[in-house]
Amino acid sequence: MLKAAGVTAGAVGVGTALGTATPAVAAGAAFAHPGLLHTRADLDRMAAKVKAGAAPYTAGFAKLTANRHAQSGWTANPQATVYRGSGSPQNYTLLYNDIHAAYQNALRGHVTGDSAHLDTAVAILNAWSAKLTSLEGSADRFLAAGLYGYQFANAAELVRDHGDFELGRFQEMLSNVFAPLSDSFLVKHNGAVVTNYWPNWDLAAMACVLATGIFCDDKAQVARAVDYFKHGEGLGAVKNAIPVVRDDGLGEWLEAGRDQGHALLGVGLMGTFCEMAWNQGVDLYGYDDSRFLKGAQYVAKWSLGGDVPYTANTRAKGAINGWSGQETAAGAAAVDPAMQRPIWAMIANHYTKRRGLSATYLTRIAAKAAPEGGGGDYGPNSGGYDQLGFGTLAFTRDRAADTSASPAPAASASVASGTGSDSGAEPQGGAASPSASAAANADGDLAATGSNDVIGWTAAAGVTAVAGGLLFLRRRDRVRRDGAQ
Q1: Can you give the pLDDT at residue 86?
Q2: Which of 127, 262, 294, 350 could connect to 76 by a Cys-Cys bridge, CB 3.0–4.6 Å?
């Protein structure tokens, strides 16, 4: 739970206003499939629009067909163990390249009806589920589990009904290799205090838990993920990632005090989480008076070069009963308006087309980023593969006739309330808990990644002390408490 003068965030039981009522879902019903980032209606829309030569779908599809990963000749290179992080023989580039090849071929196959691309996707996915047994490395293994777990599930969801796809074996791989690491991270945070890791670490794990839960029809897992979004103690929970909502309608994104790239990653992951939940009948886009909209608008304005407020904050770092420290962010970091990630089309289309809301900054930045590409279009490093992308093709939509309608999948699980008693429980199914070390690296930072990125923190006078591992914020301007007067 985060608290500040004039701000309260992240508390279970805090009164919240839902932007749109969460739909009631029949108990015992199955999940909708396909139902992660893309539904059957979405896939049909893409195919029809491209066949009709409609803009901007054709431009988005051209980005897909030009990508080297989207070619039906792609051959998988599966590994028994994938390593990510310093001090290990890193080979995770093989994994994320193959995942993006599977996803892009599957998407291309649905748009064109060309079975060769669907067959290629199936071959890649089957090869990995037949061989992969573990993810290893430094703390970065949790990032690998989160990012590649949700992406793997999305690629596989597109071919789950293919006659040659080994569905059960793939479900076992997700459940035994990826989900336990992500589930453990949300409970134990690698043995660190709860504020040690920035929001994107939680959000990657949350996306994996939700995506694998839906793909594997695990209602308890999905309920835990939804509950964490609303009430989690870590910085990825929506009220902790966006701790301050201002009178101008902008919600300050916590990781803007770190750097632009990681803030964009966090927004993209939260959007991904909300979209997958929406396709199962759960409206998190509108949760707490559309808090995510306010945070996304803030990051969009900031990334376009606009001035944004930032309430200075200090967070506790370190291991529980071990090394400890703290860092203070005094203001939003510098930005490069040319920096791009393929995250905006999905978010902008939801709020402006599904919901009919005004979102000036989202509209502007989505237009600037279009047509969005995917993995391989944003540089060779891992950051260019953090999102599946191709939002111009996949998420452009006509304005909904009823912008007040609740999400209504063909079928879904009873997870709408997201308050299951098993929230925060240990991984289910008897999977062994991953070994997690809380030892700081050479720089004394548990959250340092293999990229050894530098975070620009400065001391800030007037910031309240950190106590009990909780994060406290200093109020600089008048703010609203939980989005209300």
Answers
A1: 86
A2: 127
